[in-house]
């Protein structure tokens, strides 16, 4: 047997509580080769081959009651330290690493973490125990045990849950821990056998790609480093070559980003939207028509179908679930691409987009995209102060809202966190029946470069009607120029945004967004200042509305447009567009255009009473019964504005497994720290195992003690 491994006892002899038989998938080919591998499939429950060009890496793992045995094997080109990591998004930020290396002639395993793209630091609380380690002729293998939930005192370790998560691997050139020489990422569920992704070989697909657009800000744009470009796509045109009819509804089963090699580093995010009407031309707009500047989407194209950001992976729907596109009323799609070009490089052409796998045989369930929008513009959030190490915002969708808009429990498929460069942390907490269930998707440190859509935690695989959902975003603005950071579309501004794939789809009940109450509370609570309004005991609200309609409704930010309410109500057709937007703005005298000052002033006072109640939760002067204003609103709820709901404290961490002490209980198995390189002597009358690095476990049974050597 190569590599100097000698297995004297099977690990399965020590693990009576776990299954013996394992179904080996295609990814596991070579995992348990008796010539090259020190790992035996009877000893290790699961194996997963990791994609790597030069090292032929395999990961082995066995989930136990409250711990996990984790093994690593690189078949070639390893001469120094090696590591496996667990992460919330795919990058180094916030990742926890298990590094194994030789130090002073002894093999050691270290629990490390990285909060940025810097060398991972040692955790103050070490939560890993080495089982064995060996390096010979360019090959490296080791095994460790880690707790399923360490409750690390600094929050550095991820809880191991029954969910697919991002893992990392890395190797170094020496045993002095330093910068890696190779690394990679992969997906794994350490509580289940590896799953093969469904094959796409037989699936029909079409591609929606930007038509060789120039990466350049279009006319009307405000930031040349952040161009937003859109293109239209007519499913009638696509269907001619793909074999489906223009009016046919398709169910999408998988979505894969397609990135142009030459420009992929400039593609920040892409969003595919469906348009709501059929046969439109948008003033001559046709298939592959480009909108050179489209920070704001066309009004009829707002139904999100596919969000993707840097670091995102394929979106794959369950077997009987499809994402609907097309149909008689949804023939057109729009792809919006946000490019980031900080150096203003010229002449770049892009053909990035999405590959859409689909079926014309409609599936049992339809998926949708839910949005929690804590802030993407100045109407939703005030600016963040600059120079702050940690500044946070929160946005809650109350239980009364979800109880009214969801008609059944919703199955959550994937959750994406999206902020910009100042963002450091995001969470979506769920409160059910007064109990905080915790975070929908764990990510200890947000990474702008790696924005993946990940599975929810097992405890919140569904959202129920009546759930209270709170989105929290945290930012570090210490390096921000100026005195504040605004919310907006450019990379230099900020966002707090979470799209979620789910099913079954809820029509018009799956988007929730923070709103700042637009009406000035002081206008509701204070008396008018003008004598002619004071005489009628009117409010400042009524006076402001009467004197300057654009100022009151905030639709003229530049202050260039000014007219009073009497002029509007007596102006006839000149103000017809205004009345479409605000149908209750004037009294009935508007129809005959003969309104008087008293008519309009009284109407303004009555209208303010309604607005102050609905928008601010206030009574109107001179009524002072309610003087505490609403903090914020939610555009997906009715009523829209409300007082901030109470959010109970998050659940206290419950440790499962304890790897930072000498003895570790694994389903009744005592694991010892064994720091040297000699085999354990069996002693049926002893209740302890003598120390050895590669001999890691002993178990006491009736009248006998079993020992294991894995190297």
Q: Your description of this structure?
A:
45% of the residues are buried. Strands 25, 28, 31, 32, 35, 36, 37 and 38 form an 8-stranded mixed β-sheet that branches. A 6-stranded antiparallel β-sheet has the order 7-6-5-4-10-11, with no helix packed on it. Strands 12, 15, 19, 20, 23 and 24 form a 6-stranded mixed β-sheet that branches. It has 711 residues and is mainly beta. Helices cover 10% and strands 32% of the residues. Among the domains are: 187 residues, Cellobiose dehydrogenase, cytochrome domain (Immunoglobulin-like), CATH 2.60.40; 166 residues, Jelly Rolls, CATH 2.60.120; 109 residues, no CATH class. Helix 5 crosses helix 9. The longest helix has 20 residues. It is globular and about 95 Å long. It is built from 9 helices and 42 strands. Pfam families: Cu2_monoox_C (PF03712), Cu2_monooxygen (PF01082), DOMON (PF03351). InterPro entries: Cu2_ascorb_mOase-like_C, Cu2_ascorb_mOase_N, Cu2_ascorb_mOase_N_sf, Cu2_monoox_C, DBH-like, DOH_DOMON, DOMON_domain, PHM/PNGase_F_dom_sf. Belongs to the copper type II ascorbate-dependent monooxygenase family. Keywords: Disulfide bond, Glycoprotein, Signal.
Which architecture name of the domain at 2-188 does CATH use? Answer: Sandwich
Highest CATH level, the class of the domain at 2-188: Mainly Beta
Uncertain segments are 1-24, 660-711
Shape: globular
Q: What radius of gyration results from the CA coordinates? A: 31 Å
Structural class: mainly beta
- Characterize the largest beta sheet: strand count, sense, and whether it forms a barrel: 8 strands, mixed
- Helical coverage, percent range: under 10%
Strand share of the residues? 25-35%
CATH H level of the domain at 2-188: which superfamily?
Answer: Cellobiose dehydrogenase, cytochrome domain
């Amino acid at each position: 047997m190569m590599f100097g491994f000698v297995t004297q006892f099977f690990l399965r002899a020590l693990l009576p509580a776990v299954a013996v038989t394992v179904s080996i998938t295609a990814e596991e080919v070579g995992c348990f080769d008796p010539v090259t591998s020190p790992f035996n499939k009877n000893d290790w429950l699961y194996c997963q081959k990791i994609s790597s060009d030069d090292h032929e890496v395999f990961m082995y793992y066995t989930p136990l009651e409250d711990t996990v045995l984790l093994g690593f094997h690189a078949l070639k080109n390893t001469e120094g330290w090696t590591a496996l990591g667990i992460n919330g998004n795919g990058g180094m930020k916030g990742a926890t690493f298990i590094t194994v290396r030789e130090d002073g002639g002894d093999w050691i395993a270290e629990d490390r973490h990285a909060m940025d793209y810097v060398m991972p630091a040692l955790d103050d609380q070490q939560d890993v125990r080495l089982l064995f380690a060996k390096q010979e002729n360019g090959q490296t293998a080791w095994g460790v045990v880690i707790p399923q939930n360490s409750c690390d005192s600094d929050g550095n370790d991820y809880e191991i849950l029954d969910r697919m998560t991002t893992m990392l691997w890395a190797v170094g050139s020496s045993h002095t821990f330093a910068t890696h020489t190779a690394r990679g990422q992969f997906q794994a569920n350490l509580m289940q056998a590896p799953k093969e992704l469904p094959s796409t070989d037989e699936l029909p697909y079409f591609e929606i790609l930007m038509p060789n657009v120039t990466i350049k800000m279009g006319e009307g744009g405000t930031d040349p480093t952040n161009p937003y470009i859109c293109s239209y796509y007519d499913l009638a045109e696509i269907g001619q070559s793909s074999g489906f009819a223009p009016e046919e509804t398709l169910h999408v089963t998988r979505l894969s980003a397609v990135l142009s090699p030459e420009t992929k580093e400039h593609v920040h995010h892409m969003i595919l939207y469906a348009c709501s009407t059929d046969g439109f031309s948008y003033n001559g707009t046709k298939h592959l028509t480009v909108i050179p500047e489209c920070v704001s989407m066309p009004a009829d194209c707002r139904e999100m179908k596919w969000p993707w950001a840097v670091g995102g992976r394929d979106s794959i729907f369950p077997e009987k679930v499809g994402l609907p596109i097309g149909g008689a009323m949804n023939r057109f799609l729009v792809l919006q691409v946000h490019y980031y070009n900080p150096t203003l490089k010229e002449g770049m052409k892009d053909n990035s987009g999405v590959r859409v796998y689909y079926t014309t045989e409609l599936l049992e369930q339809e998926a949708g995209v839910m949005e929690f929008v804590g802030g993407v513009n100045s109407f939703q959030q005030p600016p963040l102060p600059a120079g702050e190490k940690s500044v946070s915002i929160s946005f809650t969708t109350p239980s009364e809202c979800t109880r009214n808009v969801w008609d059944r429990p919703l199955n959550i498929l994937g959750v994406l966190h999206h902020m910009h460069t100042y963002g450091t942390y995001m969470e979506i907490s769920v409160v059910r029946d007064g109990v905080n269930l915790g975070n929908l998707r764990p990510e200890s440190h947000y990474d702008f470069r790696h924005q993946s859509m990940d599975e929810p935690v097992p405890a919140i695989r569904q959202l129920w009607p009546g759930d209270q959902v709170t989105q929290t975003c945290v930012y570090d603005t210490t390096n921000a120029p100026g005195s504040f950071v605004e919310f907006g579309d450019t990379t230099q501004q900020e966002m707090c945004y979470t799209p979620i794939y789910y099913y079954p789809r809820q029509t018009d009940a799956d988007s929730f967004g923070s709103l700042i109450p637009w009406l000035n509370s002081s206008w509701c609570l204070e008396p008018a200042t003008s004598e002619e309004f004071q005489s009628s005991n009117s409010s400042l609200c009524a006076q402001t509305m009467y004197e300057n309609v654009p100022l009151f409704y905030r639709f003229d930010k530049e202050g260039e447009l000014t007219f009073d309410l009497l002029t509007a109500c007596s102006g006839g057709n000149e103000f017809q567009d205004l009345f479409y937007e605000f149908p209750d703005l004037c009294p009935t005298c508007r129809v005959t255009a003969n309104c008087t000052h008293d008519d309009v002033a009284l109407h303004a006072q009555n209208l303010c009473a309604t607005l102050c109640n609905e928008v601010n939760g206030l009574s109107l002067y001179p009524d002072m019964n309610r003087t505490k204003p609403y903090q914020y609103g939610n555009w997906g709820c009715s009523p829209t504005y409300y007082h901030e709901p109470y959010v109970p404290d998050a659940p206290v961490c419950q440790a499962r497994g304890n790897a930072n002490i000498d003895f570790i209980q694994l389903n009744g198995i005592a694991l010892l720290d064994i720091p040297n390189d000699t085999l354990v002597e069996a002693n049926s009358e002893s209740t302890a195992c003598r120390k050895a690095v590669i001999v890691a476990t002993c178990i006491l049974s009736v009248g006998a003690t079993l020992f294991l050597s894995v190297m």
